[in-house]
UniProtKB/TrEMBL annotation, chain A:
Record keyword NADP present: no
GO biological process terms held by the UniProt record: L-amino acid transport
Entry keyword Endoplasmic reticulum: no
GO molecular function: ATP binding; ATP hydrolysis activity; branched-chain amino acid transmembrane transporter activity
UniProt source species: Nitrospirillum amazonense
Protein name in the entry: Branched-chain amino acid transport system ATP-binding protein
PROSITE patterns: ABC_TRANSPORTER_1 (PS00211), ABC_TRANSPORTER_2 (PS50893)
Entries under Pfam families matching the protein: ABC_tran
UniProtKB/TrEMBL annotation, chain B:
GO molecular function, one term: L-isoleucine transmembrane transporter activity
Protein name as catalogued: Amino acid/amide ABC transporter membrane protein 1 (HAAT family)
Primary location class: membrane
Compartment(s): Cell membrane
Membrane spanning stretches: 14-36, 48-67, 73-92, 104-124, 158-177, 207-228, 284-303
GO BP, sorted A to Z: D-alanine transmembrane transport; L-alanine transport; L-isoleucine import across plasma membrane
Length: 241, 310
């Protein structure tokens, strides 16, 4: 495995008076799946959004491929090769599935479009059946598949996923985790994954961080955190799901 | 005889109404597109139309002075110059008056918009004079569709030009919004600006382009009105702007087909009301219909109920 692709050092971020990140240090190496777990309001989504430039970090350094992202507007950060599947999916509800995917390909070379579309439809065949349908009429699981596919359409160097399993049925969750694992294994995609579904996410992860009140309180390999007593008590209540 | 005359009169009002409706519709598109993307009414938009008309008069006068006699050539030049300059105005207005206030409470850009409108009116009044400007008829002639005794039903070349150009522009614009990458980016910014930026869309540039396109269409309307009436003054933007705004709200603010339909309806209402009831109260008629429609259907004729109201 190569050196760090993404490196956050002492990153602070606020929403007005709310100090959501308080000096976070997180590193993601090329080809890794790194999982971020933490309670509600710990600052997980804020961390992913801060990487993407919204909100802008109030302090600290964010390096992606040794280039500073601090102060860069979100659309230029996307151009560096970072794609996010945000919390709540945020598909464009009044556009068709295909249009959502076309928007995902905004930064991609148009010559790749057909190939990339075929890859997404290969991962999630249901999307091809739904391609002319308004995205707002898709089921929750289908919307999540669309959000992931939309992110992939830009051929990112790195994928940020914010709770992709939220609100989905167990069967769909398994499918989504399979795809995440497959993207990493077959395509070498670097992934930063935020999850409440800690058991699955930690099993999948090379390394993981636990975030609490805007700070990293624990870090280690996915396996180490799975075995950790505190983690088990706080995030894996009832053992393996 | 009485019956055919009645039909003829009706058709004449219809033609006049369509012409007016085309002009209102073109202006209304600018209101609706800007509202769609930044949820704000650009009250200076009527002034953009007025400036388009002034540039048209000036350019026509210069061209006539320079001995350009070909009407199509003159029209193309005037449209190009008017659209270019007003596009620059549209772009600048957004940069100066709205962008700095994008995250401010809603009242701030609202007041800024009204200030910008007054500023532009006064700017034109000071530089062009407060008196009306007129243009000798550039486009004359027309066809008589039907006549019977004293009555004749006519369609002037100007009316034909206005209606055909409007249909072409609206079709082209609809195509751009629905089928091109620019249109997709525009709609994405309307639905979720934060997400659009995460996908690499330059939101600021998309908003600027929306103002530029809206201003361009308003400029075309300004050129049309110059040809149609031949007389303009620095104040024409106010009433036309109010009516086009009414048209946009009537059709459902934020909706592109709604703006076109609303413009058409306002034009028709105005023409028929002037023809059959009273031309002095034609403006009251248009605004009354608006109030009625909004009581029954607050989101406008083609608007989505989920879009927030002004
Ligand atoms: N747009 C915002 N404006 C103001 N405060 C915000 C905003 N977004 C998040 N916050 C606050 O920042 C803190 C961190 O929120 P964040 O959404 O990052 O948590 P999270 O770890 O993703 O939680 P969850 O697991 O519930 O998604 C919370 O206190 C939240 O209330
Ligand atoms: Mg969150």
């Amino acid at each position: 495995m190569a050196g760090p692709l993404l490196q956050l050092s002492d990153v602070h971020a606020s929403y007005g008076p709310v100090h959501a990140l308080r000096g976070v240090n997180v590193t993601v190496n090329e080809g890794e799946i790194v999982t971020l777990i933490g309670a509600n309001g710990a600052g997980k989504s804020t961390l992913l959004m801060t990487i993407c430039g919204n909100p802008k970090p109030a302090q600290g350094q964010i390096l992606f491929q040794d280039k500073s992202l601090v102060g860069m507007p979100p659309h230029l950060i996307a151009r560096q090769g970072i794609a996010q599947v945000p919390e709540g999916r945020r598909i464009f509800p009044r556009m068709t599935v295909l249009e959502n995917l076309q928007l995902g390909a905004t930064l991609a070379d148009p010559a790749h479009f057909a190939e990339d579309l075929a890859i997404c439809y290969g991962l999630f065949p249901i999307l091809e059946k739904r391609q002319a349908q308004r995205a707002g009429t898709l089921s929750g699981g289908e919307q999540q598949m669309l959000a992931i596919s939309r992110a992939l359409m830009s051929r990112p160097r790195m994928l940020l996923l914010d709770e992709p399993s939220l609100g989905l049925a167990p069967l769909i969750i398994r499918q989504i985790f399979q795809v995440i694992e497959q993207l990493n294994r077959e395509r070498g995609m670097t992934i930063l994954l935020v999850e409440q579904n800690a058991y699955h996410a930690l099993k999948l992860a090379h390394r993981a961080y636990v975030l609490a009140s805007g700070e990293v309180v624990l870090t280690g390999s996915g396996r180490e955190l799975l075995a950790n007593e505190q983690v088990r008590a706080a995030y894996l209540e009832g053992g393996a799901h | 005889m009485g019956f055919t005359l009645a039909v003829g009169t009706f058709l004449q009002h219809l033609i006049n109404g369509l012409t007016l409706g085309a002009i209102y519709g073109l202006i209304a598109i600018g209101y609706t597109m800007v509202y769609g993307i930044i949820r704000m009414i650009n009250f200076a938009h009527g002034e953009i139309y007025m400036i388009g008309a002034f540039i048209a008069v000036t350019t026509f006068t210069l061209l006539l002075g320079a001995g350009v006699t070909s009407v199509p050539l003159a029209l193309v030049i005037v449209l190009a110059i008017s659209c270019t300059f007003t596009a620059a105005y549209g772009w600048t207005i957004e940069r100066v008056a709205y962008r700095p206030l994008r995250t401010a409470p809603k009242l701030a850009p609202f007041i800024s918009a009204i200030g910008m409108s007054i500023l532009l009116q006064n700017f034109v009044m000071l530089t062009q004079g407060a008196r009306s400007k007129s243009l000798p008829p550039v486009m004359t002639g027309g066809v008589t569709l039907w006549h019977d005794g004293d009555f004749s039903l006519g369609l002037t070349n100007i009316q034909m030009f206005i209606i055909l150009l409007t249909v072409a522009l609206m079709a082209g614009f609809t195509l751009v919004i629905n089928r091109t990458a620019l249109g997709r980016a525009q709609r994405a910014c309307e639905q979720d600006r934060t997400m659009a930026a995460l996908l690499g869309i330059n939101v600021d540039r998309t908003i600027s382009l929306t103002f530029v396109l809206g201003a361009g269409l308003a400029a075309v309307a300004g050129v049309m009105v110059t040809l149609y009436y031949g007389v303009i003054d620095f104040y024409i933007g106010f009433l036309a702007g109010m009516k086009a705004f009414t048209a946009a709200v009537l059709g459902g603010i934020g909706s592109l087909p709604g703006a076109m339909l609303g413009g058409l309806l306002i034009g028709l209402i105005e023409a028929f009301f002037s023809g059959y009831v009273s031309s002095a109260y034609k403006d009251v008629a248009a605004f009354s219909i608006l109030i009625l429609v909004l009581v029954v259907r607050p989101s406008g004729l083609l608007g989505r109920p989920d879009i927030e109201k002004v």
